[in-house]
């Protein structure tokens, strides 16, 4: 029952954001750089749809990395951000992308992948030091890199835990949530990152309405993709 429900969650809600964007983070550092740019956009005060559209706009313009974005002048960056739908936050986001590029050049040879060296604490600290990269962006970025680099194995996202409990896939307050999540994904023959991302999507889609939903296999969100 649980593996079937896990599969249904991924099929209904979608899995990794990186895969949806056509990024293969398992494919090497260049793909990780693309994901870092996308994660930066997703981490801003903007909807996922606008972040996706803006990432596609950057890609079409030949801008595939944070370093490349930061090398553009402010007017060109704002032009691309506006084309993606960032009109309200275009200047702020342009300056943030430039600041991130500067920080990467100063501390990590211009590449986010270079910040993934060292212990888990070192990686977390290096990423949080990037301008505008708060806990949400860092968690999103690392969640989809789980297992790609040695030592990258962050705790299960709190929103995934909430959704997992809502569906009765994870026990409330469980200390072995990641092991349980891996077991569910293995039983369903899906990537654990897809399952965690799907659970995060479910939590975000429910927002405050999760308490009113019956949950388990009767969850109202398992019939539609968001």
Question: What is the element layout, followed by pairings?
Answer:
Blueprint: H1 2-13, H2 17-20, H3 29-42, H4 48-60, H5 66-71, H6 74-84, H7 90-107, H8 120-128, H9 135-143, H10 158-166, H11 177-188, H12 192-206
Helix pairs in contact: 1-11, 1-12, 3-4, 3-9, 4-6, 6-7, 10-12
Structure description:
By secondary structure, the protein is mostly helical. The protein has two domains: 2-16 and 156-223, no CATH class; 23-143, Endonuclease III, domain 1. 58% of the residues lie in helices and 0% in strands. Helix 3 (29-42) crosses helix 4. The chain is globular, with a radius of gyration of 18 Å.
What form results from the Cα inertia axes?
globular
SSE string, helices as H and strands as E:
HHHHHHHHHHHH
The strand count comes to 0
Number of helical regions: 12
- What is the CATH topology of the largest domain? Endonuclease III, domain 1
The CATH architecture name of the largest domain reads Orthogonal Bundle
Class from secondary-structure proportions: mainly alpha
Return the average pLDDT rounded to an integer.
93
CATH class descriptor of the largest domain: Mainly Alpha
Distance N terminus to C terminus? Answer: 23 Å
Question: Major beta sheet, specifics?
Answer: none
- What does the radius of gyration come to? 18 Å
Strand content: under 5%
Q: How many domains is the backbone divided into? A: 2
For CATH, the homologous superfamily of the largest domain is named as: Hypothetical protein, domain 2
What fraction, in percent, of the residue positions are helical? 55-70%
């Amino acid at each position: 029952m649980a593996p079937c429900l896990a599969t249904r969650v991924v099929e209904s809600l979608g899995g990794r954001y990186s895969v949806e964007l056509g990024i293969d983070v398992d494919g090497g550092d260049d793909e990780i750089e693309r994901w870092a740019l996308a994660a930066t956009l997703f981490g801003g005060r903007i909807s996922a749809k606008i972040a996706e559209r803006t990432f596609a706009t950057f890609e079409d313009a030949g801008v595939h990395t944070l370093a490349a974005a930061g090398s553009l002048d402010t007017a060109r960056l704002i032009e691309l951000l506006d084309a993606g739908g960032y009109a309200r936050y275009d200047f702020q986001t342009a300056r943030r992308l430039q600041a991130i590029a500067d920080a990467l050049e100063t501390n990590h040879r211009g590449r986010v992948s270079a910040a993934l060296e060292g212990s888990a604490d070192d990686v977390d600290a290096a990423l949080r030091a990037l301008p505008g990269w708060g806990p949400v962006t860092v968690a999103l970025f690392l969640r989809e890199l789980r297992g790609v680099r040695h030592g990258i194995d962050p705790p299960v996202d709190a929103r995934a835990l909430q959704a997992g409990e809502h569906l009765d896939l994870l026990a409330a307050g469980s200390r072995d949530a990641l092991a349980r999540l891996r077991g569910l994904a293995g039983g369903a023959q899906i990537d654990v990152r897809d399952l965690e991302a799907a659970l995060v999507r479910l939590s975000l889609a429910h927002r405050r309405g999760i308490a009113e939903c019956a949950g388990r296999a009767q969850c109202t969100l398992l019939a539609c993709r968001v």
